[in-house]
Design brief:
It is a single chain. By secondary structure, the protein is an all-alpha fold. It has one domain. The chain has 14 helices and no strands. Helix 3 packs antiparallel against helix 7 and helix 5 packs antiparallel against helix 14 (252-261). The longest helix is centred in the middle third of the chain and has 33 residues, at 140-172. The chain starts with a helix and ends in a 10-residue tail after the last helix. Mean pLDDT is 82; it is low at 263-271.
């Protein structure tokens, strides 16, 4: 809903409101699917502890995040959801019920990713970048407070991502192929010049360069990765120099199309 509030175009506001409704529907469908498979009910499943600890810090931080940062996180998150998690669940379950539910979720997520790239193109534009050069910044005390809020969120982000995303993915996709493919597209997204010049992208690229190109970075790679909620294995380059160069000059629409067509779902015959 934050994207809806940040959008000035009434059409985009309506699109983002529909997307929020989509996500509520997806959550409901996922819970129903989990209940469908929990036949014997041997165990009472509770909200993951890491998620409970992370959630309040995330909610607090999202109040202050800049629109381009929110858009980048949402784009990357949906790439990982669409390309890695949903497809791995489908492969792992190999069940028609799962196929039908996730096919429908994936249709919505494909629309979300397409709009995410459209918004990313706007936030990468010179027009938006110039709008950030406001002469009136936040007071120092407020910047320190917001920095502390982000630091707390980052601290709790890593165990949350590890327990809710990486651990399940390691079980469903032991080869790691789905995750590497998804993170490859995240890295190519970040290679776009307009994206790369934002401070948060510079921080991520700086950590990547430090980890991959210096002895100190390799020694403390796990700690550095933890500061940004990542695992060291996904900080190494997952694309060739030629692919990065091509991504720099490609349109956002072309990159979105490539991401959505990579490792497509097996087609369902029971729709």
């Amino acid at each position: 809903m934050k994207q809806r509030r940040n959008a000035s175009d009434p059409l985009l506001q309506e699109i983002f409101e529909i997307f929020a409704e989509d996500e509520i529907r997806h959550a409901h469908a996922a819970q129903m699917l989990a209940d469908h498979y929990n036949v014997h009910q041997y165990k009472v499943y509770e909200t993951n502890t890491s998620l409970r600890r992370f959630a309040p810090h995330f909610v607090r931080a999202i109040q202050y995040v800049a629109p381009h940062v929110a858009a980048a996180y949402i784009t990357c998150g949906e790439l990982l959801l669409d390309m890695a998690l949903l497809r791995s669940i489908n492969d792992f379950a190999m069940d028609d019920m799962s196929q039908q539910v996730i096919d429908r979720i994936n249709r919505d997520e494909s629309r979300h990713v397409a709009v995410d790239y459209y918004m990313a193109e706007f936030y990468a534009s010179d027009e938006y970048f110039e709008s950030l050069r406001s002469p009136s910044g936040r007071p120092l005390r407020e910047r320190v407070r917001i920095g502390w809020i982000y630091l707390c969120m980052g601290f709790w982000a890593r165990p949350f991502i590890r327990d809710v995303f990486f651990k399940p993915m390691d079980r469903m996709d032991p080869s790691g192929e789905r995750l590497r493919q998804a993170f490859k597209h995240v890295q190519l997204f970040g290679a776009k010049p307009g994206i790369a010049r934002h401070a948060d992208a510079k921080l991520l690229m700086g950590v990547q360069n430090l980890v991959n190109n210096t002895a100190l970075g390799r020694w403390i790679g796990s700690t550095l990765a933890g500061l940004i909620g990542m695992e060291p294995r996904f900080l190494e380059p997952l694309h060739t120099k030629e692919e990065a160069k091509r991504a720099e000059s490609a349109s956002f629409q072309a990159l979105a199309g490539e991401a959505l067509s990579a490792n497509p779902f097996r087609e369902s015959t029971a729709l």
